[in-house]
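I have been asked to look over a protein record a colleague put together. What it holds is a sequence and that sequence's fold in token form. Please read both lines and tell me whether the tokens look consistent with the sequence. I do not need a full report, just your reasoning and any doubts. This is what I was given:
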Amino acid sequence: MENEIVSKNFIEQIIEKDIEEGHCETIRTRFPPEPNGYLHIGHAKSILLNYGLAQKYNGKFNMRFDDTNPTKERSEFVESIKADIKWLGADWEDRLFFASDYFDQMYEAAVKLIKKGKAYVSDLSAEEIREYRGTLTEPGKEDPSAGRSVEENLSLFEDMKAGKFEDGSKVLRARIDMSSSNINLRDPVIYRVAHMTHHRTGDKWCIYPMYDFAHPIEDAIEGITHSICTLEFEDHRPLYDWVLMELGYKDTPDGTPKQIEFAKLYLTNVVTGKRYIKRLVEDGIVDGWDDPRLVSIAALRRRGFTPESIKKFVELCGISKANSSVDYAMLEYCIREDLKMKRPRTMAVLDPVKVVIDNYPEDQVEYLEVVNNLENEALGSRKVPFTKEIFIEREDFMEEPPKKYFRMFPGNEVRLMNAYFVKCESFVKDENGKVTEIHCTYDPASKGGNSPDGRKVKGTIHWVSAKYAKKAEVRLYENIVDEELGVYNEDGSLNLNPNSLTVLTDCYVEPDLADAKAYDSFQFVRQGFFCVDAKDSTKEHPVFNRIVSLKSSYKLPTNN
């Protein structure tokens, strides 16, 4: 029993204590993104954590858009976020909500605070409010408007709602404690005037609630028991509890809804900031929020990551109170581990040079039986066409090889994977000295890759039929920022890697890959794992994204 307790993370321990003490019966969690951009890998941790807790305790998981700031919010972002969460496997069933669903209740809540003498309308500008608020070492000063009567505040707040004031000219502040050591409790702004069209409510409102006021009310209305958020909201928790207690949703900070903070997921050398990604999109450096060089969930999906690999990654990162960074190589480790047993291993030639097998019959085609994955028999086998002319990788031939080079060179015999032994006899160059064609002879008795006389060859190379292979585009990705120099320049701009994308247009893949659909993934022998691009690939012009190379220096940490 003791070991079982140790294995639980601190959030699970809090939830179980709350159940035991009768603070809640049914656990309800939520994921509350602001629809002002695409979700990234860090959000995946929060989604899977909230959904996982609801599942573990037979509870409910709500999906809620925190759309209280119409300046940057768009329906496009709402739809992308919903698609990402479904893809990750978190199911909100029929519980899809929007903060804007509750604008009427939030307005009434603000009126209730005014009537209790717990909120007032202020004439101070944003700059003056900052000035009056004080610092970490100096207490705040009383707002000159704080002495207004309840009647005057009600009237002014009604006028704010009716659109009688310009943006920024009036705010509603909560009356808490200007001398509090916690700056968040120094009469925070809870409503602002903003004449903006909202993506759902249109022009119904010209005042909007602030996040710190809206969020606890949303949680309370939906019956959320545990409001799980990241560490930067820890200092906001007293305000969260103050709002809920003043409005009568709970009696003590120990009651529910209860805010719990955990450490964010930081990946080294990646760009997650929305304003940076927005600039990359607008400047045409990437082809959208789902460009495979980014770590938005949509980008990872397009690149070929799987929900299972991201879940594994989140599990390895763990849940804690301490901020830490994780190497991107760990995410790559997770996708390799997920795909290596699941996906077929196919042959693709990315930098082709033609090989002519001089003694092979001119019009003959043989369909060779090839096992799809040597480590997973369940994936079966396929037929691959073999012909007189094939393509191999240019790097698999050398005119003058160094020692210990066992691939193709004049006079050397190699094995063509799953096919025959071939011996290089000669080659042809163009006027620039580039090899354009290699001539070989084959041993018909070595079909399947072994010779009856028992002779051994040291080199095995992959190939595709020149006649039947499908021409394809292959995109090789590296980090969009220069890891050597760091993500950011001194002026705050991104330190971009000029080699983050290499496009190879003259590649050849096995003919069966012409039928591959968006997001289908494969291991290309010796090249890495690749995925059919969901945006640009067509049957006539297949496009494959490299998800990850085959080898990694990453070692999974061991617990001693």
About this structure: The CA atoms of residues 400 and 409 lie 7 Å apart. Confidence is low (pLDDT under 50) at residues 1-6.
